[in-house]
Known about the structure:
It is built from 10 helices and 9 strands.
Amino acid sequence: MEKIVILTGAGISAxxxxxxxxxxxxxxxxxxxxDVATPEGFARNPAxxxxxxxARRVQAAKAQPNAAHQALARLQQGWPGExxxxxxxxxxxxxxxxxxDVIHMHGTLAGALCAVCGHRxxxxxxxxxxxxxxxxxxxxxxxxxxxFGEMPYFMEKIFDHLTEASLFASIGTSGQVYPAAGFVQEAxxxxxxxxxxxxxxxxxxxxxxxxxWGPATEVVPRWVDGLLARCHAQ
Length: 234
Ligand code: OAD
C-alpha cells in the first residue's frame, strides 16, 4: 500500500504556543544563530547555549499537542500503508499527540549528547555547563540537537523512505534550511506527488503539486480526513 512521508517544521507547533524561528518576533529575531545554534557558539559560551535550550525545554514541556499533531497520528493509525513522520522540531508534540516512530532529524530537547564520546542519555530539565557524561565522565554534556554546520540525523533512512513514497507532504516549514528544504525536489525527481500545508506559501511553494494555506490546526485535520475518506471509499 502507498507510503506517505511527511516533513514537519515549527509551524505545526505554533498553535501549541511554541514560537517559530523566522516569523515576526520568532526565535531568530531574538537570538543570533551563530551564538546559540552552532558548535562554535557552544565552545565560546556554553552557559548562553544551555540557557537557550533550557528555556526551550521548559516551554516545550508545558506545551500540549494540537489538532494537527493529533490528525497526523490518526493518519498513521488509519492509513493502510506506512506513514512516516520526519520532523525538524526538537519538541515531542508528535509523540504526545499519539504518533509513533517519529524521525527527529534535528534531534530532540529530551536528549543529552556527550560531545566527547557520543554517548546519549535523557536530558535533565536543566542542563548545566560542565555537566559530566555518565559514560566517560568528561564534563561535556550538550543538548542532543543538530546545530548549523552539523549533519542532520537519519539522512540515509529518510532518503530510503522518500524513494519508496507515493506522497510527500511538507507541513509548517519555511523551506529555508537544507537538507530538509530539498526533500520536495528529491521527491519530485522520483515521481512522488508533493503537497504543502502551511500558513503561507513557503520558499519552495511553486515546486509542490498541491497546496493548502492556513493554520495547521485547520488545514491538517481537513487534509487527513480527505485522505482517509478517499482510501476508505476505495
Ligand atoms: P521557520 O520558522 O523557518 O518556518 C515556520 C513556518 O511555519 C513558516 O513558513 C510559517 O509561515 C509557518 N507557520 C507559522 N504558524 C503556522 C501555523 N499556525 N500553521 C501552519 N504554519 C505556520 O521554521 P522551520 O521551517 O521549522 O533548525 O525551520 C527549520 C529549521 O530552521 C529549524 O529546525 C531550526 C531552524 O533554524 C535548527 O535549529 C538547526
